[in-house]
Amino acid sequence: MEEKIKKLIKLVEQLNKLGLKVLELLGTITLIALSIKSLFELMF
């Protein structure tokens, strides 16, 4: 039983790390999109 709980905790920790990476990526993409948008607005 304890083994299963430990495995579950490890899994949750890995999912949390993955979630943070995904959020970072989304944030980066959003920033890039916004900067491209403002570049276009400045040009035209």
Q: SSE order in H/E notation?
A: H
Structural class: mainly alpha
Overall radius of gyration: 19 Å
Strand element count: 0
Given the C-alpha coordinates, what overall shape results? rod-shaped
Number of helices: 1
Ends distance: 64 Å
Give the biggest beta sheet: none
What portion of residues is helical?
Answer: over 70%
**Average predicted local confidence, pLDDT:** 96
Q: Ranges with pLDDT <50 over ≥5 residues? A: none
The amount of beta strand, in percent, is under 5%
Structure notes:
- It is built from 1 helix and no strands.
- With 44 residues, it is mostly helical.
- The radius of gyration is 19 Å and the shape is rod-shaped.
- The mean pLDDT is 96.
Secondary-structure map:
Elements: H1 2-43
Question: Would you kindly provide a brief summary of this structure?
Answer:
The protein has one helix at residues 2-43. It starts with a helix and ends with a helix. The protein has 44 residues and is mostly helical.
Key terms for this structure?
44 residues; mainly alpha; 1 helix; 95% helix; rod-shaped
